[in-house]
């Protein structure tokens, strides 16, 4: 739980979570985003794997931006940013621009929600339903992905 702050990923870092939900919340007076290093030669990796326990209220959620947060929640991830996420990544009020790489991690099950998503880098998000069962991420019938411009 990050209250009244952002997740800051340092240059040259490689962060791997296991059975972890990262929740950004607070009183809307502080930025709430994921900050990757930017600039020539800077790079870092953030790999997210959500909790899978049946009794965990954050089951299948890797990253969650509290919907009440609206001030300074937009994300711009530079060319050296590498986000690999499994499970549900909810950045509902955030406008996300990526210049780096975004993709599914080990389970190849990612559900991504953002106000807007613009990529200038590589995106390989896998929405395979059969891989989501092990994470406990509920599925729906019909359209698998919907991009709106």
List the SSEs and their pairings.
Layout: E1 2-3, E2 7-8, E3 14-16, E4 22-25, E5 34-35, E6 44-48, E7 61-65, E8 75-77, E9 81-85, E10 87-98, E11 101-104, E12 110-119, E13 122-124
Parallel strand pairs: 1-4, 2-5, 3-6, 4-7, 6-9, 7-10, 8-10, 9-11, 10-12, 11-13
Order of helices and strands: EEEEEEEEEEEEE
Radius of gyration, whole Å: 15 Å
Helix residue percentage: under 10%
Shape: globular
Derived from helix and strand composition plus strand pairing, the structural class reads mainly beta
* CA-CA gap between termini: 32 Å
Mean pLDDT: 85
Give a short account of the largest sheet. Answer: 6 strands, parallel
Low-confidence stretches: none
**How many structural domains are formed by the residues?**
1
In total, the number of strands is 13
Strand share of the residues?
Answer: 35-45%
- Count of alpha and pi helical runs: 0
Structure in a nutshell:
By secondary structure, this protein is mainly beta. The protein has strands at residues 2-3, 7-8, 14-16, 22-25, 34-35, 44-48, 61-65, 75-77, 81-85, 87-98, 101-104, 110-119, 122-124.
Describe this structure as you would to a colleague.
The chain is an all-beta fold and 149 residues long. The protein has one domain (2-135). The chain has no helices and 13 strands. It has strands at 2-3, 7-8, 14-16, 22-25, 34-35, 44-48, 61-65, 75-77, 81-85, 87-98, 101-104, 110-119, 122-124. The strands form three sheets. Strands 1, 4, 7, 8, 10 and 12 form a six-stranded parallel sheet that branches. Strands 3-6-9-11-13 form a five-stranded parallel sheet, with no helix packed on it. The protein is globular, with a radius of gyration of 15 Å. The protein starts with a strand and ends in a 25-residue tail after the last strand. The mean pLDDT is 85.
């Amino acid at each position: 739980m990050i209250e009244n702050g952002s997740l800051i990923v340092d240059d040259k870092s490689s962060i791997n979570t296991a059975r972890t939900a990262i929740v950004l919340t607070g009183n809307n007076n502080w930025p709430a985003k994921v900050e990757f290093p930017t600039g020539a030669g800077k790079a870092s990796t953030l790999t997210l794997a959500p909790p899978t326990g049946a009794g965990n209220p954050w089951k299948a959620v890797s990253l969650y931006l509290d919907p009440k947060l609206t001030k300074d929640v937009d994300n711009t991830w530079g060319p050296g940013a590498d986000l690999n996420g499994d499970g549900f990544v909810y950045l509902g009020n955030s406008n996300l621009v990526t210049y780096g790489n975004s993709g599914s991690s080990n389970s190849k099950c990612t559900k991504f929600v953002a106000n807007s998503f613009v990529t200038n880098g590589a995106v390989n998000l896998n929405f395979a339903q059969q891989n989501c069962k092990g994470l406990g991420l509920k599925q729906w019938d019909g359209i698998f992905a919907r991009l709106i411009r």
